[in-house]
Design a protein that fits this description.
479 residues; Rossmann fold; nine-stranded mixed beta sheet; six-stranded parallel beta sheet; 19 helices; 18 strands; 38% helix
């Protein structure tokens, strides 16, 4: 990738602002691509008012432009920040981005249509001349669409290849198919309406899949799964249409950020050679959460959104039976009110064995990764999942259901190169029997410590994935 120029476009990025896995990916992957190749790498982001002030004060003003979309002409300021071989550009418009949240507004369609159009205008304004433009999730899905509808004869884009990554197909950017909405909000004429039209609505993800040169997902298994109605959330016909250009590449994690030897969130740091110190984190978390202090009791951790597709209905279906065992369980997350209420009620009933913290707390989540013996992730669907990788990094043995990225990253200990416990059937009984198998193995502490060291040895960093992305970029550039 010598002398190549790659531009990432996304709606969130660590450490500036993030609400989930997408922010982690955009915080890590561009830096890894830059360090693993000779490519020049840039990232385009909205300048939300929620940006951490520490970073806001480091941004340099680059210039401003007027972005035209349909009848609207809008100001767009451009700021930049450089770090680890990557230049981050922030596109500023307070009308669209000075809000208390990133998403969830009635005009999200218009907000991210502006961001998509502004991104293409910024590429021209900054004279980036990219070979690859890599867009992520529906919020950037109009970028390849506008490339086709608005910039068809622009020489800068004639050789540019557009890559679109689906991080979660459930969120597609579906809006009314009314011509007023298409022309007025998205600036798309009725001649081009077929690009977005899907099942009677305007579907931005569909448009992105249609107009990109390559479509990727965040694990090989998920790329296969979304061909079926069970996983595609209604988009299976379009996935089938583009399957010739569909690729699955497993995400990684930032090994420097998630490092038990350096993580300041932990009570006691440790590594593979000093893994016996890990248990001190269990003792300190037990004290902090007012659980009975006992080094020998197996501690099961769960850090998750409390929603059904994360397998919470399975956990609910077997939890009381599990709590009869010699075990302690710590759950952290927010989500559906009925799950929050159910598990809090259960905590009242099993106070010496269960702690449920209804919060989004990154510091506490890492304390749980460091303190737990076993990590639970029984998802119904999981495009990639990062928690099972983070848990492994901290020597916490994962129990996962065989779906999406969980199936690609964790193999059962019964198999060669096993690095966790897995089950296939989506039922409370299958989950419970797998947990009981792990609890039984835990009784043999020498054997268990070998398992802990095994899971810590697996490299879930970005190196391998970055190579696969670079290889994919090379292939698409030859098309």
């Amino acid at each position: 990738m010598e002398d190549k120029k790659i531009v990432f476009i996304a709606s969130e990025c660590q450490p500036f602002f993030a609400s989930g896995g997408l922010g982690d990916v955009i915080g890590s992957l561009p830096q890894k691509i830059a360090s693993a190749s000779e490519a020049s790498v840039s990232v385009l982001l909205p300048l939300y008012s929620k940006i951490n002030p520490v970073w806001r004060n480091k941004l340099l003003y680059v210039g401003q432009m007027t972005v035209q979309l349909a009848w609207r002409k809008q100001y767009c300021g451009i700021f930049k920040y450089e770090s680890k071989g990557v230049t981050y550009y922030f596109l500023d418009n307070e009308y669209y981005f000075k809000r208390s949240n990133f998403y969830g507004y009635f005009d999200d369609g218009e907000r991210f249509a502006f961001f998509a159009k502004a991104s293409l205008d910024a590429i021209l304004f900054l004279e980036l001349k990219p070979n690859i433009v890599h867009c992520h999730d529906w919020q950037t899905g109009l970028v390849p669409v506008y490339r086709r509808t608005h910039y068809g004869d622009n020489p800068v884009f004639t050789r540019t290849k557009f890559v679109f990554t689906i991080h979660n197909i459930e969120y597609q950017g579906i809006f009314s198919n009314d011509l007023d909405v298409l022309e007025d909000t998205f600036g798309i004429s009725h001649f081009d309406s077929h690009l977005l039209e899907y099942k009677g609505s305007s579907n931005i993800m569909k448009g992105a899949m249609e107009t990109s040169h390559i479509v990727t997902t965040v694990s090989p298994t998920y790329a296969k799964e979304i061909l079926s109605p069970e996983y595609a959330h209604g988009l299976e016909h379009e996935v089938e249409r583009v399957k010739h250009k569909l690729v699955g590449i497993l995400n990684g994690i930032d090994k420097h950020f998630y490092s038990p030897s350096k993580d300041r969130a932990l009570f006691v740091n440790y590594n593979q050679k000093s893994v016996e110190n890990k248990v001190e984190n269990k003792v300190e978390l037990q004290k902090m959460l007012n659980l009975p202090v006992d080094k020998t009791i197996p501690l099961i951790g769960m850090v998750s959104r409390l929603v059904s597709h994360k397998g919470l209905d399975l956990v609910k279906g077997m939890m009381e039976e599990l709590l009869v065992e010699k075990v302690q369980i710590v759950m952290l997350g927010t989500g559906d009110i009925h799950f929050e209420g159910y598990f809090k009620d259960l905590e009242n009933k099993f106070g010496s064995k269960l702690r449920v913290i209804i919060a989004y707390n990154p510091d506490l989540s890492r304390k749980i990764y460091g303190a737990s013996d076993i990590f639970l992730m029984p998802s119904k669907s999981e495009p990639c999942g990062l928690a099972q990788m983070i848990a492994s990094r901290y020597g916490t043995v994962p129990i996962v259901r065989e779906t999406g990225g969980l199936a690609d990253s964790i193999k059962d200990f019964n198999l060669e190169n096993g690095n966790g416990y897995t089950f296939a059937e989506y039922s409370p009984s299958a989950l419970l029997s797998t947990v009981k198998r792990a609890l039984s193995d835990y009784q043999d502490q020498d054997g268990w410590m070998k398992k802990v060291k095994t899971v810590m040895e697996v490299d879930f960093g970005w190196t391998k994935s970055a190579k696969e992305y670079l290889k994919m970029y090379e292939q698409v550039l030859k098309q």
